[in-house]
Write a structure and sequence with these properties.
Number of helices: 25
Radius of gyration: 34 Å
Number of strands: 25
Shape: elongated
Distance between the termini: 34 Å
Number of domains: 3
Largest sheet: 7 strands, mixed
Structural class: alpha+beta
Length: about 800
Amino acid sequence: MLKNYIKIAFRNLWKDKSFTLLNLLRLSVAFAAALLLGMYAFFDLSYDQFHENKEDLFQVYYSEQTPDGQELATSMPVPFAPALERELPNIKHISRYISDHALNLEEGKELDLRLIFTDPEFFEMFSFETLRGPVDVLKNDSQISITEETAQRLFGKTEVLGERLNLLVNGRNEVFTVGSILKDIPVTSGLRFDAAVNFTHSPNYAENVDRWDSRNHSVFIQLSADTTPEALTQSAVSFNNLHYQGNIEDLKRDGAQPNANGNYLELNLLPFKDIHFADFKGDYLKVSRAYPYMILGIGLLILFIAGINFVNMSIARSAQRLREIGMRKTLGAAKKQLFFQFWSESVWIFLIALLLGIGLSLALESPFRQLFNTPARLTDMSSSTLVITLLISFILITFIAGGYPALVLSKLGTLKALKGKLDLAGKNRVRNALMVVQFSIAIVLISGTLVLGKQLDYMRNKDLGFNKEQVVAIPLNGKRTNRQNVALLRNELAGKPGILSVTASDNNLGLGKDGSTYFSRMGFDYKGRGVSTNMLVVDYDYPETLGLQLKEGRTFSRSYSGDSLSIVINEAMARELQEEDPLNKQLIIDDSIKYTVVGVLKDYNFQSLNKKIEPISLFMKGDWDLYYAFVKVAPQNMAQTFESIEDAWKRIEPNAEFLGSFLDENIDRTFKRERTMTTIISSGSLIAIILSCIGLFAISMLVVTQRTKEIGVRKVVGASVAQITFLLTKDFLKLVGVAFVIAAPVAWWLLSQWLQDYEYRIELHLWIFLAAGLLAVFIALFTISFRTIRAALKNPVESLRTE
């Protein structure tokens, strides 16, 4: 019997090649899209999930109740971690963590390394596999742990235990001995590095070893199995009152209100497995996996639409097999036999489409990874749990999408089937509901494409308050000290065509090619109350090079020898000081040193656009290093000028990689997630629209088949082609209208929630959703017009003829 089912199934599929090929094409595209989107989503969801102790690992952060509300901080002072481990119970391990860069200076060959400074317990907490050497290698502060890839890059081999490494670390030459080799860091790790050394080598460690007012690193802890995060937070109250007593008193003095627990300063724990999905907004913490789930949802929606279309097309095609059904019933075929016959045909189509979809996804994997800039691979989805889940999902899809039309056909009456009548009275509600759902999905996706594209365009073109088109940012990663390189670069470029000015600072704008960014923030007392500001150490000509607008006063000038004790602030900082005229006011910052405010800049977006503009203060501190050079170029021949800058850098640092980029490129890199979301949703919209059109075409074909004689009669009594076409299309347009009424509020709510993450955002206007609805109507009309116009033009004699 099974052999007979298979034989008949393939015979029927081969007989109607166009139907079979169309279904295979549609379903294979849907499976391929779902697999690739699932690959992306599951990869994102797997970040930091490989650590064996992930359930007990946490990042420490503080919530502080200020007069302006709550502020969160993840940076900790150097003595914090040792004191916390010493004074609080139930902490199994604790480790400090700073990520930085270092240069290998061996044999004159400079290689940039991602270097982390951490404590010996780090490798006992996190599952970074040690291949050679002890796990606690960092207990010896002269040893270094490197990855396999790093060993291969530096030495050309991995058997390098005991080898010496001469590194340039924060302007200091330091020699380390290779004490262990790590397996290469998994691509799903949020902590990425090439080498690790003891935390005592971190920047300014000696100066800050006993200071609680200077914060510059993250702290991770592993709790004991018999405690909870809430218990540790509660037990840390006395710790906070002891070590932050002065801070708490200042907060009370300034009018801050305690939180719901009655605390002004509270230690909190963020689960490490949530860090990849966490976003610190300054005043609150948001942990959301909505992004990967949204991508996964789009893949499932595409499969859902493909399944709906398969159902509709199968029923539409069944008109050609009515007499076959009637004859088989006459000869004694049971409903069960007919059901399994039709269902087996569906199973084979789905199975072949799945295999074709897998092949198509493998072929498109590389372009997909490049387009979305992801290291995800289809092989990452080979875990047994995931494979079983996908297999069960495939069986359910096949059973539902293939079983429903098989059930409808097997229940047809024998006489009606022999007469060629497909009576689906009472079933139109199901069909119409499915049509409304798939067009609702299409309208939501179209609306999302329009809004995301508009928001991305808004962020790209927003006036950020500085010149981003004509300024090149260069990470200072050479052998010489950074200040030396800035001076040499300024001399090399002096008088060159197209070069307008050169400056430097200790932080970049946007995200440069080196991929690193950080912000330094400090608090101090001013007129009896606490204020805080972001700090930026700059060189001469910084505001002029960046095109920052001066509101009042002046900027730093070589004509003033005392500018090392001057400060330039932005408008937000002036408001923080609560001074009508902040010029010449003295601020006591950094070890009781007085700085005089000499200028006020207009506010500019020095952080991402999902944050409001915060206070920032510019210093000319000669004892702080500079990490980025900035070169302003003329708008003419910018490509040639960029090459001149690169040539100048190579003459100064011939062995250091040139990582220069225009600031507008740096800003655009910060929109990576928005670009990816826009591309995915627009691609999903296109696929959803195409699949919906196929389904709509199948339904129109079914309706025309059902109403063939009605069309003939209407033509005989004088109905025009336009009247018949309108008659056949109005019901479909009603469905699209219902879909719009359902989809528009849903799309508005989803998109308004998404836009809340941005401090600067577009307004949602009605025309966006109307445009999505009109586009859906146009697509529906265009799709069904082929079949309806053809039916309206058909000779009524052919429609009325009966055998």
